[in-house]
């Protein structure tokens, strides 16, 4: 599960953003590292588009579930969010180098990534497949099928190579893994009939199905759930501040309000943790 698509610009229909009046909480804001507190801004690295989590509306404004949630987090911390677009693969190195304070691009918290940065978990996402209506793709036996994915995601680097190897070991035709720079392009490949199915993070696929006007349908159920997290510099006190701010939004109900507005309430978590990778 990866994160966002490449820097290809995209817009999509979206519900009206429902900003919550979180308000600054002094005792939580006091946990913010002094340099960030003095600047008054939270510098956030983001890769677009990845609807419904982060993308641009028709006016060019960055919107989405992640955005509304991060805005509420920043308000709780008494900071102004400053979003800076980036290639997905450059966000974590930029956090390590001090260019960004935090990343916000549907990052799956993994053990490997935790070696480079710390994560604060905020959501649970799995993998989900979709196809054109009437298709006959089985995610557990997609041998000989063309499957679209976003490049560098968990689906391209881990899920599909393992499933392809199982096909080969069984003497079946290989899976043709079609990797695209952007998730929107991968999804569109299925709509256009260039691919048999698409595999991506569950909230992304569910949103794509909703937006497809009947041109896509879900295959099976969500599997391999893992936490999304916000990456911050290793050892930074910002992690604890973000964790406490999210706990506060969960308690006030603002977290649920934001998730429900974007139709992703199935992935809500009860308690954020620092470095909660499952693998």
UniProtKB/TrEMBL annotation:
Entry-linked Gene3D superfamilies: Periplasmic binding protein-like II
Localization per Swiss-Prot or TrEMBL: Cell envelope
CDD domains the UniProt entry points to: PBP2_MidA_like (cd01004)
SUPFAM superfamilies, per database record: Periplasmic binding protein-like II
Native organism: [Mycobacterium] wendilense
Entry keywords, A to Z: Signal
Main location: other
Family: Belongs to the bacterial solute-binding protein 3 family.
Regions annotated as coiled coil: none
Superkingdom of source: Bacteria
Descriptive protein name: ABC transporter substrate-binding protein
Ranges of biased composition (kind: Polar residues): 1-14
Ranges for region Disordered: 1-20
Domain Solute-binding protein family 3/N-terminal: start-end pairs: 41-266
